[in-house]
Amino acid sequence: MPEIQILSDSGDNSNTNALFGKYELGKLLGCGAFAKVYHARDLRTGQSVAIKILNKKKLLLANPSLANNIKREISIMRRLSHPNIVKLHEVMATRTKIFFAMEFVKGGELFNRISKHGRLGEDLSRRYFQQLISAVGYCHARGVYHRDLKPENLLIDESGSTLKVSDFGLSALTDQIRPEDGLLHTLCGTPAYVAPEILSKKGYDGAKVDVWSCGVVLFVLAAGYLPFNDPNVMSMYKKIYKGEYRCPRWMSQDLKRFVSRLLDINPETRITVDEIVKDPWFVKGGFKPIKFHDLKGEGGEVEAVKSLNAFDLISFSSGLDLSGLFAGCGESERFLSEKSPDELAEEVEEFAKEEKLRVETMKKGEYGVEMEGQNGKFMIEVYISRLNDLLVVVEARRRGGDDDCYKEMWDNKLRLKLISVCDQTPAATV
């Protein structure tokens, strides 16, 4: 089990140049809205680690309930022990910050490898996919559903032979399932990888949406591009909803068949993990499933992971995405609503008038509002588009202006108003 320490802000460091006298921080690896990730060296062992530093003040200002979620995330990650899942070594904290010491995966994101080299060969794609399914199956067997699987959340070791799953920030566990229908209902995920049943907002099976995302990942590995992609997010969602994609000519017939079972828009007939590990394409070249015994607690009994709640957890990747929150002030943010486009447009226009902002509405047939005020220091466009009979997508785009004025108007006013009106979980920002 990883150690958990809570120290004063001054730290209890015998080595003032090291974090808690234990970790020598190196270069910045990545950062997100609430965290930064550094390469570090464990002074006790000389081992390389990744240190994620979370700003508690920013987290609590965003949502006070996140304090309990951090504790739950730690509880879950302490219990996940698999060679294809990033390992948590230690957790430390001060009054203002939380520090996660994690396994350092030197090869970086699988996404970067694909971006640099393009599509992978079918054999290498298969090896990575086998490891991904091994990790996903392990999580599902313990009631953990990742819900945001994508190449950015998959890390590769220095040799390029081992894949590791990271970022459990949108994870859910079986106790999040509604007893009346046995399904999850939180709208989450990354647009290009989200399963069609999530968009329908009728509830979904966490294991089945993970399988869909795995299918998108496999397609990207073998093709070098996304199966569902469009600069217009609404058009992309419609392609996902209808399952409209085309395999490249270099894919083998067996792989095309396998992908079609992974990207089956009907979750009831979509292939399961148990079926995946028996598929002829998957097992080609040999596949040896890894068997693990449940970890024992201090009293010698198996710890009940399913009794924990992993909803809205803090992520373990450099991207840091939070379920239930906007990802911060950016160039573009979007979320889903059941309100009609007319109702939403009226709310935005009313807000603009209250704030004495210049308003321009889009041409007839389009729902959109452009606002500008304070001598051009604030400028934002809000687009409202219908996804299907049930859902509407609201997208806010920044169009220049002073940072402070924009943040004050958007973060502290308009977005809070829209969230209150829509009462919805925002979709992941692209």
Automatic annotation (TrEMBL):
<dbReference type="InterPro" id="IPR018451">
    <property type="entry name" value="NAF/FISL_domain"/>
</dbReference>
<keyword id="KW-0464">Manganese</keyword>
<dbReference type="InterPro" id="IPR011009">
    <property type="entry name" value="Kinase-like_dom_sf"/>
</dbReference>
<keyword id="KW-0547">Nucleotide-binding</keyword>
<dbReference type="GO" id="GO:0007165">
    <property type="term" value="P:signal transduction"/>
</dbReference>
<dbReference type="InterPro" id="IPR000719">
    <property type="entry name" value="Prot_kinase_dom"/>
</dbReference>
<dbReference type="Pfam" id="PF00069">
    <property type="entry name" value="Pkinase"/>
</dbReference>
<comment type="similarity">
    <text>Belongs to the protein kinase superfamily. CAMK Ser/Thr protein kinase family. SNF1 subfamily.</text>
</comment>
<dbReference type="InterPro" id="IPR008271">
    <property type="entry name" value="Ser/Thr_kinase_AS"/>
</dbReference>
<dbReference type="InterPro" id="IPR017441">
    <property type="entry name" value="Protein_kinase_ATP_BS"/>
</dbReference>
<dbReference type="GO" id="GO:0005524">
    <property type="term" value="F:ATP binding"/>
</dbReference>
<dbReference type="GO" id="GO:0004674">
    <property type="term" value="F:protein serine/threonine kinase activity"/>
</dbReference>
<dbReference type="InterPro" id="IPR004041">
    <property type="entry name" value="NAF_dom"/>
</dbReference>
<feature type="domain" description="Protein kinase">
    <location>
        <begin position="23"/>
        <end position="282"/>
    </location>
</feature>
<feature type="binding site">
    <location>
        <position position="52"/>
    </location>
    <ligand>
        <name>ATP</name>
    </ligand>
</feature>
<keyword id="KW-0808">Transferase</keyword>
<keyword id="KW-0723">Serine/threonine-protein kinase</keyword>
<keyword id="KW-0418">Kinase</keyword>
<keyword id="KW-0067">ATP-binding</keyword>
<feature type="domain" description="NAF">
    <location>
        <begin position="303"/>
        <end position="327"/>
    </location>
</feature>
<protein>
    <recommendedName>
        <fullName>non-specific serine/threonine protein kinase</fullName>
        <ecNumber>2.7.11.1</ecNumber>
    </recommendedName>
</protein>
<dbReference type="Pfam" id="PF03822">
    <property type="entry name" value="NAF"/>
</dbReference>
